[in-house]
Amino acid sequence: MANSYKILGQIAPSQNTLTNVYVTGASASSVVNTIYLCNQDSSNANVSVIVRPVNETLANKRYILQDQKLDAADTIILNLNITMNSDVILAANISTRAGEVNANCSVNAFGVEIS
User: Fold this and answer.
1) Interstrand relation of 29-39 and 88-96 (parallel, antiparallel or unpaired)
2) What are the strands of the beta sheet with 63-70, ordered from one edge?
3) Predicted model pTM
4) What is the pLDDT of residues 30-64, one digit of tens each?
5) 47 near 105, Cβ under 8 Å?
6) Sign of the CA dihedral running 83, 33, 49, 1
7) Residues 60, 64, 69, 72: is their CA dihedral positive or negative?
8) Is 61 helix (H, G, I), strand (E, B) or coil?
9) DSSP class of residue 60?
């Protein structure tokens, strides 16, 4: 088995749109070591991070974070070491907090892909 240390995914999702950050392939697995959630806006945001198998629907048990407040111009760093077998999705959603006008955030995942 080969280990590839890499950027697993980098996204700047549209608001209120669950977006895949990384999907393990059918013949690979991975370990997501670190996830960076960065708010580049002057408004506060909510962020959700989800891990789920490709063939299963979204459910409450899939959330790593759900509607976590991400302050304006701030970054949350998650050091989780999430193990993902084949056909698993790491996804994120960004939304505007009540009373705020915008949410411009990015999500970056780093780790090891094993194939």
Assistant:
1) unpaired
2) 19-23, 88-96, 45-53, 63-70
3) 0.94
4) 999 999 999 999 999 999 999 999 999 999 999 99
5) yes
6) negative
7) negative
8) helix
9) G
Task: Please give the angle made by the CA atoms of 5, 37 and 16, to the nearest 5 degrees.
Answer: 120
The residues with which 36 forms a beta bridge, in sequence order, are 77, 108
Helix, coil or strand: residue 40: coil
Please report where in the chains the tokens 């989800």 appear, as a residue. 50
Contacts of residue 67, defined as CB under 8 A and 6 or more positions apart, other chains included, come to 46, 47, 48, 95
Residue 37: its pLDDT value, please?
98
Instruction: Give residue 60's identity as a one-letter amino acid code.
Output: N
Tokens read off for 97: 């907090």
Look-up: residue for tokens 């949350």? Answer: 76
